[in-house]
Design goal:
Chain A: InterPro entries: Bact_solute-bd_prot1, SBP, SBP_1_CS. Chain A: Its main location: other. Chain A: Residues 1-23 form the signal peptide. The structure holds three protein chains of three kinds. Chain A is α/β, with parallel strands linked by helices. Chain A has two domains: 35-150 and 309-368, D-Maltodextrin-Binding Protein, domain 2; 152-305 and 395-439, Periplasmic binding protein-like II (D-Maltodextrin-Binding Protein, domain 2), CATH 3.40.190. Chain A is built from 20 helices and twelve strands. In chain A, strands 1, 2, 3, 4, 7 and 12 form a six-stranded mixed sheet that branches. A four-stranded mixed sheet of chain A has the order 9-10-8-11, sandwiched between helices. Chain B has a two-stranded antiparallel ribbon. In chain B, a hairpin with a 5-residue loop joins β1 (55-57) and β2. By secondary structure, chain C is mostly helical. Chain C contains 13 helices and no strands. Chain C folds into two domains: 23-59 and 227-270, no CATH class; 71-218, MetI-like fold. The chains are: A alpha/beta, B mainly alpha, C mainly alpha. At the A-B interface, α3, α4, α12, α19 and α20 of A face α12 of B.
């Protein structure tokens, strides 16, 4: 027993010294003349491989810069870590953050807007899709480079449409069409329609009508002070959900992406809203024909288009100028049509560079998956405005939670107006607290 | 297996002098490594948390200005915090007693001297090897209303579909059931150890005296096991208060905040909403609650254990 | 024991064993499913091929992660056993000023919510230069109130006569600890060891925060890396990963279980 302890203590000591040497070695080894760009991301699963491929492609193309992508957990986990290391030598040069973190990143003062490099170089921004870059552009300054971008689409079961006597080639476009189709589709074990309990979809359903989420032009012309999503547009969305749920043609699937997809794949629901990025897997996995359509609008309302979702790439501020330049080089590489075509095909996210869509590889794929084209068209047809640019809110993650709670309360029979007003009042409070803190800084 | 006697050996006090005759420095030396690490990695963060709970903080977590008790008073008057407190309390109530009784039943079963019992013991303790994240994903599928096995079983018995995690009335209970399953392995293992520690001669004499097995369970097993039971109760309660992973994966605190236990609410405030002041205040309140409950449990528990 | 009772007991054992083990069996089944099979709600995969397992290995450096987890968990376990047994020994066999208060302080550490410690500890480890290294992953966990508590309860059952005898024969206190206390408490140490190992094995957030490099990353990060949100996760591959990750832990429990029984039947605890 005594020996055992001695041996294990000895082992530990050896191990400790061994790995402290290890750590020192890795730090030195990057000194081979190349500039190392650390790229923190939250792309898991298949996507991580695609990110790695993009980085490998860049590293092979030139020999000045090495880009190293590092997975840092979910967006929330990554942002917590970034926040802690920003300004120290452990900070990455490129950081991927979700769209709702945009305002937070701008306010943090720890990032370098990419606009500086665009101006320095006279880089032609017009090759980027305006409807995507708009989201990350504040006061005419491009803050970050859009990376993985997606929008919501309507997904439906074509086979079920046929069975119910509906035209499988024509997706419902208005609320009354949705309701009617859902009524016909609801029978036995099947329910017509569902929306994931996720704030993003509500934001989109409001924007598509041209409605704003918060005041001050969606927070774009000044810090948002009040939530306005409880207006006419929001009410229409909530009334649709509430009415359909009462009729039994709307199915509550909770907050998990996989739960709603499971409900669709197993034939429990016939129509639902999904992210454009998830379409291809849905088509591949479904044992039936899958159709895609635009986001529905209330009757008599002109379609304004969709807000971009997903994430963008940010550059850290307090790092070497040389590293920033290297990071910018990588960002430029990422947006070339060839890379974007690969990215679009392999990840399912949009191409930031619309030129990519004209490439034969993309065209071929679109023939196989016409659903992909629907998503791109919906984005292209978007009319730029404050509504479709998306809201800029410091307390966005919290706002989303409140909206989700409001959605959930609908299923408990709370009136749409009441649910919306309550959520809006709570968000007003958080906004006020956040603005007060910013003011006292 | 550990024998967890809360009550000191009756003859021990008389010998105490002998035992403790060495200089006090040596005692400190043994405790020092643990103590140092505790100071650096637990007390220091906790003190910082207490400090931050009295400040308004910016989104980066830096204190801006002194807030006095405001973080606390805002919390105690907000309905969402009271909902959280209620959810936490109910969650502990659902998981601890049932979990411990279930594990005790399994331990009693597995304490029989039978062929192949080792296999069953491994099966019963196997959930200990499952990480919370992995188990939660499995339970997510089990509870899925459209494809999950839970509804299939209900249908098999002619019952209607349930919405488990989506209905505010059943969500907390559903998460509690999953949690009980996750905890059983460990509780079972400790309780089995406690059972095996009981002197078999006691049972032998009870058998000779011809008492019923229920009687010997009540008069021998339970009292002899009480220190272990006490230990398991304390630890399960503390763990239950800190359950986080399963809630994050299964419900994210919803629907309508029905599973938003305090630990999850702290997580949301600290890591998603960047409201560090409020998160710190909640952490302090949670710490105090668990601390007080544990002290009460120690007081009551030790008395119970003494009186048998 | 009558035959009837035996059959009844076996039935009960099998039934409860089935219920307890079912979720793991379910995960095992999912680990062989391809594409949409999981989401369509199937219970039994169409065919049992190893593609998902191969995929799991290809997708993340799982073998590397497994080795890292093994190293990290073993070191944490040894560190905890050492520090906990030392502290517990002090709490039982020595007397010093403020001992009871110190014990209460130790116990109170169990109640500190982990969220409160995450960020400050990250900064501490960063300033110590332990980021991305094994010390950063392991040392903060060496001290553990739960283990100290458990071992204290065990040490208290050691007959005082043993200690007196050792004093008479002039053995130093440390030697008494090494040669008497530890061997006697073997079974408790093994139980605690299993517990420590498994807890360390299942850590996720801390390893994620303090590491940047697959050279030191652990399996739970690997599992998270396989799951996605916006895009459908390949649950077959994730569950294949889960099965590979719990295999070592199940094995440990099985072996530990055997060792424990041996120890018990030999009466080592008495």
């Amino acid at each position: 027993m005594k020996k055992l302890w001695m041996v294990s203590i000895l082992c530990m000591l050896i191990f400790m010294t061994a790995c402290s040497n290890d750590a020192a070695n890795t730090e030195e080894s990057s000194g081979d003349g190349k500039t190392e760009v650390i790229f923190w991301h939250s792309m898991s699963g298949e996507l991580e491989n695609v990110v790695q491929e993009v980085a490998d492609g860049f590293n092979a193309e030139q020999d000045e810069i090495t880009v190293t992508p590092v997975f840092q957990g979910t967006y929330e986990e990554a942002i917590t870590k970034f926040n802690t290391v920003a300004g120290t030598e452990d900070a990455p040069a490129i950081m991927q953050t979700f769209e709702v973190g945009t305002k937070y990143m701008i306010d943090s003062g720890k990032i370098q807007p990419v606009q500086k490099f665009i101006d320095d170089e006279g880089y032609d921004m017009n090759q980027w899709e305006k409807n995507i870059t708009n989201y990350y552009s504040v006061d005419d300054t491009q803050y970050s480079m859009p990376f993985n971008s997606s929008t919501p689409v309507l997904i439906y079961n074509k086979d079920a449409f046929k069975e119910a006597g509906l035209d499988p080639e024509k997706a419902p476009e208005t609320y009354s069409e949705i309701k009617e189709a859902a009524k016909k589709l609801t029978k036995d074990d099947q329910v017509g329609f569902s929306i994931l309990n996720y704030g993003w979809f509500i934001e989109e359903l409001i924007a598509v009508q041209g409605g704003l989420f918060v005041d001050n032009d969606n927070g774009r012309s000044g810090n948002a002070e009040k939530a306005v999503f409880n207006g006419e547009e929001g009410l229409k969305v909530f009334e649709l959900i509430s009415e359909m749920h009462k009729e039994g043609t709307f199915y509550n699937t909770g907050q998990n992406w996989d739960d709603i997809r499971a409900a669709f794949q197993s034939g429990k629901i016939a129509m639902y809203l999904d992210s454009s990025a998830g379409i291809r897997a849905t088509v591949d996995n479904a044992p039936f024909e899958v159709g895609a359509g635009y986001l529905p609008v209330p009757d008599g309302v002109d379609r304004q288009g969709v807000i971009i979702g997903g994430a963008s790439l940010w550059m850290a501020k307090d790092i070497d100028e040389e590293k920033q330049r290297a990071a910018w080089e990588f960002m430029k590489y990422v947006t070339t049509p060839d890379v974007q075509a690969q990215w679009h095909l392999k990840s399912g996210y949009f191409s930031i560079n619309p030129a990519a869509y004209d490439l034969p590889v993309v065209q071929e794929e679109w023939e196989k998956y016409p659903q992909l084209k629907v998503t791109v068209d919906q984005l292209k047809n978007t009319i730029p405005s404050e509504a479709t640019q998306g809201a800029l809110i410091s307390v966005f993650p919290e706002a989303r939670q409140k909206v989700v709670s409001a959605m959930e309360s609908l299923y408990q029979g709370v009136e749409p107006k009441e649910a919306l007003d309550r959520a809006a009042a709570e968000i007003d409070q958080s906004l006020e607290a956040a603005n007060r803190k910013n003011g006292s800084q | 297996m550990p024998s967890l006697n809360m009550n000191a050996d009756p003859k021990r006090p008389t010998l105490r002098k002998n035992r403790f005759s060495l200089p006090s420095l040596e005692g400190w030396l043994y405790v020092l490594p643990s103590f140092l690490l505790f100071i650096i990695f637990l007390f220091y963060p906790m003190v910082r948390t207490v400090y931050l709970s009295f400040f308004y903080t910016d989104t980066q977590g830096k204190p801006l200005s002194f807030a006095g008790w405001e973080n606390f008073t805002t919390l105690l008057s907000s309905t969402s915090f009271l909902t959280s407190a209620k959810a936490t309390f109910l969650f502990v109530l659902y998981t601890v007693p049932v979990g411990v009784i279930l594990a005790l039943v399994l331990a009693l079963l597995a304490n029989q001297k039978m062929k192949g019992i080792g296999f069953f013991r491994t099966i019963f303790s196997s959930t200990m090897g499952m990480s919370v994240a992995a188990s939660s994903v499995i339970w997510m599928f089990i509870y899925n209303p459209s494809i999950g096995i839970a509804n299939k079983i209900l249908n098999f018995f002619g019952l209607a579909d349930m919405h488990f995690l989506l209905d505010p009335n059943t969500a907390l209970l559903s998460v509690a059931i999953a949690t009980i399953w996750m905890n059983t392995g460990f509780t079972f293992l400790i309780l089995l150890g406690g059972l095996q520690n009981i002197d078999s001669q006691l049972y032998e004499s009870a058998r000779i005296a011809g008492v019923s097995s229920y009687y010997s369970f009540r008069k021998i097993t339970i009292p002899m096991l009480s220190p272990t039971l006490f230990f398991v109760l304390t630890v399960t309660m503390i763990n239950s208060f800190q359950s986080f992973g399963q809630i994050d994966i299964l419900t994210k605190g919803g629907p309508t905040d029905s599973t938003n236990v305090i630990v999850y609410s702290i997580y949301k405030d600290a890591f998603i909403n960047y409201n560090i002041g409020s998160a710190s205040a909640q952490a302090v309140i949670l710490f105090l609650c668990v601390f007080i409950l544990t002290v009460i449990q120690f007081k009551l528990g030790e008395r119970k254990v003494h009186y048998q | 024991m009558t035959i009837g009772k035996k059959i009844f007991l076996y039935l009960l054992l099998i039934l409860s064993g089935f219920i307890m083990f079912f979720p793991i069996v379910y995960a095992f089944m999912i680990s062989f499913m391809q594409g949409g099979e999981v989401l369509q709600g199937k219970l039994i995969p169409e065919n049992f091929t190893l593609t998902n397992y191969i995929n799991a290995f290809e997708k993340v450096p799982l073998l590397r992660y497994l080795i890292n987890s093994l190293v990290v968990s073993t070191v944490i376990m040894l560190g905890q056993l050492l520090l906990c047994s030392l502290a517990a020994f002090a709490f039982v066999f020595t007397k010093f000023k403020g001992k009871n208060l110190l014990f209460m302080l130790f116990i109170s550490t169990m109640m500190i919510p982990w969220e409160a410690t995450m960020v400050p500890n990250f900064q501490t480890v960063q300033s110590l230069g332990w980021l991305n290294s094994f010390p950063g992953l392991t040392i903060p966990f060496f001290a553990m109130a739960f283990g100290t508590f458990l071992l204290r309860q065990q040490f208290k059952t050691i007959p005082i006569e043993l200690y007196e005898a050792s004093q008479v024969s002039g053995i130093s206190r440390f030697k008494f600890f090494l040669t008497v206390v530890l061997p006697i408490s073997k079974t408790s140490l093994i139980t605690l060891g299993i517990y420590c190992f498994l807890t360390a094995w299942n850590m996720y957030l801390w390893p994620l925060l303090v590491t940047n490099d697959e050279k030191v990353r652990t399996v739970q990060i690997g599992l998270k890396q396989m799951q996605t949100q916006e895009i459908a996760s390949e649950w077959g591959v994730v569950m294949a990963g889960v099965m590979l990750v719990i295999l070592p832990t199940l094995l440990l429990i099985f072996v530990g279980q055997k060792r424990l029984q041996e120890g018990l039947t030999r009466g080592a605890i008495k």
